[in-house]
Amino acid sequence: MEFIIKGGTIITSTSSYAADVYVKDGKIAAIGKNLPDDGIKIIDASGKYILPGAIDAHTHLEFPFNGTMSADDYFAGTRAAACGGVTTVFDFVTQKKGQGIREAVKPRNDLCAPKACVDYSFHVALTDLTDDVLEEFSTAADAGLPSYKLFMVYKKDGLMMNDADIYKALQRSKETGTLIAVHAENPDVIDLNIDKFKKEGKLSPWYHYLSRPEAVEAEADIRAIHWAKTLDAPLYIVHLANAQGMQAVKDAVNEGYEIYAETCPQYLNFTSDVYKREDGRNFVCSPPIKGKESQIALWQGIEEGYIDTVATDHCPFKQEQKDWGKDDFTKIPNGCMGVENLYPYMLSQANKGIISFQKAVELCAENPARIFGCTEKGAVEVGKDADIAIYDPNIDFTITNAKMHSDCDYTIWEGTKLQGYITATYVRGQQVFKDGKFIGEAGFGKFIKCQPRPIA
Ligand code: URP
Ligand code: ZN
Ligand code: ZN
Ligand code: ZN
């Protein structure tokens, strides 16, 4: 298989330039002006941008959560990814009590492999940090699984990990070249607030936000950063959504610590006012979407380089599932959709002049590839996988659920107007999306072994 993309402008995190891209056997084989094209299929990208496929570093497909299951299975979720220019997703595997790391991943990989339409890897959400599991960090990392998420919240006998466990995991990560990610919120304060609101009969989605407002997230960010600093261990904060936490990341980075911050499009585009809407329950996720001040701080963090990645936390629940909590926010399954919206949204922000196209590529492709050791991906460069999105900056696109490719029956992005849109997506040279239509195949996506970090 070979083809040449001609007439387009390549975007990297540092530059943009006109050149042809020659793809052969799934790899980017050459880049240059006027590459020879005799007998080779030509893709005309005149007036368009040639971008690395996005890497969504945070999805929850077929995710069993609080007694239910997220709406997109590995097929529907990766189909939606393909149609949004995402060529790799990092999905979360939850370790069951007593399981080893690779033991937890095996059945999830078996489930994912026949359904995946784009490439994928896993972060393992640890719930049982035994000595054996700590020991396994190094062998799991060598097997391509060097990143683990620890939840500071949710059920105390379930997903949640205690402070000592998180501390131990950070300590071990340093010795093994692995990376610890945290979901940072304070569970005890959340429980206290929920109990109070329940007693007062305050059960609308607005109280989901008020039960875990800015300070509840910030305190946990600061705590996790403090441990990472004490141990001089790298730390990745997932779905950062508040201004004070953002400031704590900035301070730590400026002191020389390796603290990475991820935020999500829902925090960049919406404010907590959505929880006052009639459909407020559809926006319920944790951490909740915060106020305007936090939104501004996150955009500033992007501009100044303290936000490293934008990923989606794609975890949709169908309307019927969200409706369980119509009259009681504590019964609303937590999570929002976004895998198909990530790249188009960030690129539209670039097209509107809010950020640069280079920044969008850095946040959505290059940085996640670098941070998670996904060395074959993340850039339009010779030798990398031919994971490519072609973007037409002149299309006006209004998001409606009918145009989306998730299995969910609504989208929180309904009516959002975007400037420009993806017209084609290639995964390892195989086209999976063309002019609004999914043309990929279940089972084409393959597991990507990530590289551990160099050990200091
Ligand atoms: O509300 C969310 N974010 N649901 C998915 C699980 C998580 O915390 O990432
Ligand atoms: Zn989380
Ligand atoms: Zn950073
Ligand atoms: Zn998540």
TrEMBL record:
GO CC: one term? cytoplasm
Keyword Metal-binding found? yes
Name of the protein? Dihydropyrimidinase
Q: Does the keyword Metal-binding apply?
A: yes
Q: Signal peptide location in the record?
A: none
Residues modified to N6-carboxylysine: K149
Q: How is it modified after translation?
A: Carbamylation allows a single lysine to coordinate two divalent metal cations.
| Annotated Amidohydrolase-related domain residues | 49-432
Family statement = Belongs to the metallo-dependent hydrolases superfamily. Hydantoinase/dihydropyrimidinase family.
